[in-house]
Amino acid sequence: MVKHHNRRMARRGWSASPIRALGISATVLLAVAACGTAPSEQKSSASSDEPIVVGISLPLTGDFSQPGGEARKGYEIWRDQVNKDGGLLGRQVELKITDDASNQDTVVTDYTKLITEDKVDLLLGTFSTLLNFPASSVAEKNGMLYVEPAGGAPKMFDRGYTKLFFAQQATASHQPDTFVKYIEGLPENERPKTAAYPTQDDPFTTPVIESMQKQLEALGVETVYTTTYPADATNFQTIASAIADKKPDLIAQGAVFEDGVGLVRSLQQLNYSPKMLFQTSAPSNASQYSEGIGEANTEGVFYTVSWNEKATTPNNEEFVAEYAKRFDGGIPAEDAADAYAAAQVVQAAAEAVGSLDQDKMADWLHSNEVETILGPLAWDETGAPTSEFLLAQWQNGAPEIVAPEAAATVDTAVAKTPWQ
Amino acid sequence: MTQLVQALVLGLLIGGVYALMASGLTLIFGVMNIINVAHGALLILVAFVTWKIWSVTGIDPILLSVVMTPLMFGLGWLLYKGVLSRISGSSPGMSVLLTFGIAITIEGVLNVTAGNRFRSATPSYFSESYRVLGISLPKAQVFGCLAAVVVLGLLYVVLSKTWTGRAIRATAQNSSGAALVGIQAAGVAALAFAIGTATTGVGGSILSVLYPFFPASHYDWISRLLGIIVLGGMGSLAGALVGALVLGLAETLTATYGSLQWSTLIFYAVIMLVLLFRPQGLFGSRLRQDVMA
Amino acid sequence: MTFLESLRTRTEGRRGTLAVIAIFAALFLYPVILPFAVYEQGVLLLAFLMALMAVSWNIISGFAGYVSLGHSVFLGLGAYTGGLLAETYQVNPLWFMPLGGVVAFVAAALVGMVVLRARGHAFVIITIALLLSMQVLVTNFPSITNGSNGVNVPLPFWSSDYQNMPFYYLFLVLLLATVAFAAWIRRTKFGTGLLAIREDEDKAAAIGVNTTRYKVLAYAASAVPIGIAGVVYAYFLSFLNPIGAFALLTSVTIVLSALAGGRGTLWGPVLGGFVVSIVSEAANVYGGGSQSRLLVLGLALVLVVLFLPQGILPVISARIARRRAAQQKVEYTDQAGVATARTPIVVTPRSAPTAERAAAPLLEIRGAAKSFGGLRAVDGVDLNVEAGSITALIGPNGSGKTTLFNLVTGAMPLGSGEIWFDGTRIDKLPPWERAHLGLGRTFQITRLFKSMTVLENVVAPLPTASWALMAKDAVSGHEAERARELLDFVGLGRFGSQQAGALSYGQQKLVELAQVLMLEPKMILLDEPAGGINPTLVNRMVEIIRDLNRQGIAFLVVEHNIPLVLDLCDPVAVLSRGKVIAQGPPSIVRADPLVLEAYLGPEWLPAEPLPGAVLNQAALSVKGS
Fold first, then answer.
1. In this structure, is residue B283 part of a structural domain?
2. In the predicted model, is pLDDT for residue B71 greater than 60?
3. Whether residue A187 is found in the same domain as residue A72
4. Residue of C155, C161, C280 with shortest CB distance to A39
5. Same domain, yes or no, for A223 and A354?
6. What is the pTM of this model?
7. pLDDT tens for each residue of C272-281
8. How large is the average pLDDT for residues C578-607?
9. pLDDT given for residue C517 in this prediction
10. B157 in a domain, yes or no?
């Protein structure tokens, strides 16, 4: 599941200024002696003992501070585990993390500074696609490998970049594939006959729902309702009553978070419970989601996700244990796991080519599979991943993985129960 | 058919709440000739405080308006005395900028203290509805609308039956005339601003239950409320009520038969078209100072 | 005029010019000296962009006084124009810079034609609504704009070694060009017209300024630099989405920058753009990130509006001016000097009424009526003013005299009836076209542009609607000479460089008359020319009016000083309750019982006509009450 906390920014831009004017007075600037060398001449300094510096800009404050903070935890756990195991290519790893304040202008300035002024050896990606778009451009301009833990909008990979890799299983349009397969595997009489597809107008939910609608129609599921609502919609009663009017078997909603909770609540008020409910991101917000709609009402809700705490993937157990140790026994957020996985990808590439040569690392990633805590990841020539998301379902008040089989934590999916 | 009736009923319920929220804004404009852009931010401020108290103590959020209203009255008084009274008489552009600055400041304070997250108070009755002839009336909406109607009624009584209220209305209609009969304009303006702000005490409490909110939500709300009072006629309480019901209905009908994507545009379109072609709105005096040409 | 000269303004002086040159030279050299300070360059180039937008905003909101709170809409338009075309055709977006400017210009002109009818609160709110509507529209038309998915712009074509340096220079050059553009506008007649609109829009229209054209053009002109910069911004950012490109907070930052630096000044917005950038960056670096940045922005806006509404630059230059003023004493006007100083002058009305027209009256008002609510202020007035006459219009207070003036000059729309001037029906024409036909007016309470100098005031009127005239220097050549002659003529030649607001009331009346004469009018409407000024100046005024009348200018005079009216005017028309109740030579009107009734009330009806002196006294006492 691609999480993409852009919804706050999506409040018609009131909160996100592209021009937060940055500035230092000319006089101050002239006094600052920031001498340097041309960016293209700098990368030969792979001396043996100095630590490898990894540059990252994260939204530690502002609209995306929540995933940004989680990503930082993931990166830091990775750094400490690598250093404990003797480092990367025999060198210690150091993270240089700056705060881009969830701002597109700042993220550009930050990555530019990391590459050209701080001359970091490696980069890791930031959070939210809105920030990864411009940040990956900076990296590509400078010939730096850029592995991003978030940012699965299909458009990201239309740009023909050669150094960009997305460290999750699939882009947004392939997110529903596991769910569609699951439907396909059901006996004919258990399949939904009709479906409603409400989705937020959002670069990450819309492709998921559009792709699902197309695939399910191919399976013969009749579409009875579609609508796209803006990011600032807060009142879902009208959509809920329109859906209730059509009585679909399946509701598949492209929900970020609040809208997911909002629609379910409105459906409860109208007392319409579909046979199946799929939502994109909302249900993965564990306790927030179950508190929002009531724990009893979560039973049987489907969603897709990139990672699961119980997965038996390499390093996953250590990661979960370390996270719990550091943060009061907490369960890692998906964002932290995605960041950890992105770091694993870079690590694997460096180790495989035996150097920090950015071109060679990118070439290697284009033709090899990497084992991460999310499972095995592989990429096509555009950097889009070619694996599959996990299909998750709420069962008895807890999220479980029902497919694919290799990652499943329970044997079967359960039926959705009516609202309590 | 059921769908239409359902949409109409929901629209009216929403409209009642909108009317309450818009009443303070239109009152302030009527008396002071200031568009208080911070009105939306004050609503969100109240919603947040209400949510906080509810989540700690479990007291019903709508009931909490009994506490929030006097608090907001005090805050309104302070805001007027400390900030707004300093610019009385300067250009309209400046007063809009000033209240905009206040709005952003409140948003900033909420961002720092409360964090940039969605909140929503969910008392037990939230997901329940009354069902009448196949139409469902969500309890939260019904309670919110009832509270709004009660407060609007009280406001009407205060403005028409008390001396203070009559002074406020007199100033709104003709400030120099009011001064002639011994009404102190500054005192009345402070009162009007305080009362206008006090309405956010109720409005914000209802908002905390009906709509998820976060610090920057105030822009959505001020756009909506401006649309309402521009349509109804700036400064007119009756206009605010009618404008709120009309736009509440328009919003649910567009969402039902069109798409929610376009329902936000309705408010902007109303603001632009009404100001350009019927500046006095349905009931009010002209907001637009016309270019003499 | 050299480029640098054009950047220099009256208030900032020589030292200021040197400082500006030094700072910009340093900014130009900076990347040459420290080519790899990429971060600092990135920081600076965004400050350039902010300053550029503030300077542009200043054209409509600072010069013309129409505060726009949605100006970033043009950044979004420019960015989307460049970004979409570049993405579609995979070409360098910089080719679309001119197109970005054109799109912004056209959009602003179209929108401006509608939106600029509103002023005050309404204009501010409409500009916000416009910006947010654009955001919704761009989001909701994905087939054209990619909707919320946004636009990917190709990467820069230059070697990555150059980093942002090309952007740095582009924005710097664009900023300077924008400042030069604004400076040029400020120097032209167009610029003076905008200031006139800011100070007193109705007055501006009365002296021949086509306010609609001026405002629309100013709005469009203020959009162009931002539209061009928007294309560069899209290229710089490499990714666009509706929310970021059409952000309200950007608009607020623009306004804050221009306000803090000094609205209406040339360099103030540049200074403000840089200062706001520093504060914002400092808040980010030292103040705990972006959350506090929002707080700082809000507080800064409140504080600037409350305590620094003029802006930094005007406060500084006022301080410098005060220091200078302490050294050289301001010269004050002596009334006697005014009364004696006289230069003969020839004021020729643009064309003497033609032979066949001469038969018809110069101004003909037929059945003019105007109501306010239930009150019929002007109730079917028929009135003629013959060419070459000095016609008086008298009547008690509230009888509709000033309203009638407003109807004739177009300051108010006529309710019903017709007004003809020199063979043209004018009651549907906008005020400036009536001025262009040769109809001038003065006001009961003088309405000079108080922040301009006396000379600037006198050259402000526009006798024609020509576009070329707009681009001419405001104070130059023949016109300035003519203005000085006119000032000499009214006896105020020495005060040309004084601020108009500093003159005495009587002097302001004379300046206003000189101002009207710039229009080369055929007819002047004088609203209480002798009201509130001392007797010496009254005599002076009378002489001037006679002098002008001999040269062929007709007058319609509203005046309460009845002896003066009877002495100066012929014929006299009496207005009461919106109707003309008597008309004719002074001697006849003076004896008309209806006139007495109008002045003294219906109970007071004399048995026989009274001598003029009684009426005079009665009228004066009524007026005084």
1. no
2. yes
3. no
4. C161
5. no
6. 0.82
7. 999 888 777 7
8. 71
9. 86
10. yes
B235 dihedral zone (left: phi>0; alpha: psi -120 to 50; beta): left
At C12, which amino acid appears? E
Closest-CA residue of chain C to B275: C122
Domain of residue C62, residue span: 40-320
For residue C525, the cross-strand partners are C441, C556
Chain C hits for A139, Cβ within 8 Å? none
What is the residue type of B130?
Answer: Y
* Enclosing domain of residue A346: 43-169+312-377
Q: Is A61 on the interface with C (CB under 8 A)?
A: yes
Structural domain includes residue A331: yes
How many angstroms from the chain centroid is the CA of residue A193? 31
Tell me: do A365 and A265 sit in the same domain: no
**C328 in a domain, yes or no?**
no
Q: Is residue B290 part of a domain?
A: no
Q: List, in order, residues 6 or more apart from C384 with CB less than 8 Å away.
A: C361, C363, C364, C365
Contacts of C599 (CB under 8 A, 6+ apart): C396, C615, C618, C619, C622
Residues C313 and C375 in one domain: no
| A12, part of any domain | no
Q: Which residues in A16-44 are b (16+ Cβ under 10 Å) and which e? A: bbbbbbbbbebeebbeeebeeeebeeebe
- Judge contact between C67 and A66, C-beta under 8 A: no
Residues 118-157 of chain B with CB under 8 A from chain A are 118, 120, 122, 126-129, 136, 138, 141
CATH number at residue B181: 1.10.3470
Is A296 among the domain residues?
Answer: yes
CA distance C517 to C440: 8
Helix, strand, coil: what percent of chain A each, to 5?
A: 40, 20, 40
Shared domain for C203 and C129, answered yes or no, is yes
Our CA dihedral for C337, C340, C344, C350, rounded to 10 degrees, sits at 70
Task: Scan residues 237-266 of B and list those with Cβ closer than 8 Å to C.
Answer: 261-262, 264-265
pLDDT band at A28 (very low <50, low <70, confident <90, very high): very low
Give the neighbours of chain B: at least 3 Cβ pairs within 8 Å.
Answer: A, C
Residue A271 has pLDDT above 80, yes or no: yes
In this structure, are residues A282 and A301 in contact, taking their beta carbons and an 8 Å threshold? no
- Are residue C264 and residue C382 in the same domain, yes or no? no
B210 to A235: CB separation less than 8 angstroms, yes or no = yes
H-helix or E-strand containing B135?
strand B135-138
B149-205 tens-digit pLDDT:
998 898 888 888 888 788 877 777 666 666 666 667 777 888 889 999 999 999 999
Check if the beta carbon of residue C215 is closer than 8 Å to that of residue C66.
yes
The sign of the torsion formed by the CA atoms of A226, A232, A234, A235 equals negative
Can you give the pLDDT at residue C13? 63
Same domain membership, residue A191 and residue A114: no
- Residue B286: strand, helix, or coil: coil
Number of domains in chain B: 1
Predicted confidence (pLDDT) per residue in C297-347, tens digit = 889 999 998 888 888 888 888 888 777 777 655 444 444 444 444 555 556
- Band (pLDDT 50/70/90 cuts) for residue B244 is very high
Which has the closest alpha carbon to A395: A278, A281, A302, A288?
A302
Inter-chain residue contact A27 with C26, CB threshold 8 Å: yes
Q: Which two tokens stand for residue C105?
A: 């210009």
Which pLDDT score is estimated for C180? 94
Assign residue A293 the CATH number of its domain. Answer: 3.40.50.2300
Q: Does some domain include residue B131? A: yes
The two beta strands, A164-166 and C416-421, are unpaired
Q: Which pLDDT does position C351 carry in this prediction?
A: 53
Given pLDDT bands bounded at 50, 70 and 90, which one contains residue C358? low
Give the number of domains in chain C.
2
Residue B278 has pLDDT above 80, yes or no: no
Both A200 and A281 in one domain: the answer is yes
The token duo for C202 is 């109705």
